[in-house]
Amino acid sequence: MELTVYKINGEKTDRTVNLDESIFGVSPNDHAIYLDVKQILANKRQGTHKAKERGEVAGSTRKIKRQKGTGTARAGDIKNPIFRGGGRTFGPRPRDYSFKLNKKLKRLARKSALSYKAAENKITVIEDFTFETPKTKNFVEVMKSFELTGTKTLLVMRGTDQNVYLSARNVEEVLYLNSKSINTYDVMKAKQILIVESSLEDINDMFRN
């Protein structure tokens, strides 16, 4: 797949790049995408939720009324779950939600996500750029040049350019991502992907190894 390389002001250059068909042109596997996104979201969960159960609530263990003859249901101590202030029945406990996936499946998921975006013409390749100083206004101008204001955009760059990163981080709809950290969730979530030309080399190397 051949794409034109753009300047950061939105103008076309006289250069083109070829996207590797083995990465950007595969037949997408929806189930692989589902599993990878599920794992990414699961691994982000803290799992620190906790509610006190009957044995953990502070209170007397004295039997509050006799077993029979009261005309009401039998009850033990005040920590009974049916009483206000009692313990919770089968409450949440701390747990680890993370799980593992096969490396080949995760690689297929990322290729599938990139192929979806390429097929939808949602990938734009721009020439390498930087800013002299970190300034949000500079990056807002870039977004305006590509008519992406208010659009969920993924910016993929080679390494971390501090000036560009600091300029882009305050733009709510933009996510700055190192080319070596590209993942299925962020690709699928984005409405448009801006890939800096030099980062394509990293992406190709990542999937070839």
Give me some keywords for this one.
209 residues, alpha/beta, Ribosomal Protein L4, Chain: A, 6-stranded mixed β-sheet, 6 strands
Descriptive account of the structure:
This protein is of the alpha/beta class. The protein has 7 helices and 6 strands; from the N terminus they run ββαααβαβαβαβα. The protein has helices at residues 21-24, 30-44, 103-119, 136-145, 162-168, 184-189, 199-208; strands spanning 2-6, 12-18, 123-126, 153-157, 174-178, 192-196. The chain has a 6-stranded mixed β-sheet with strand order 2-1-3-6-4-5, with no helix packed on it. Helix 2 (30-44) packs across helix 3 and helix 4 (136-145) packs across helix 5.
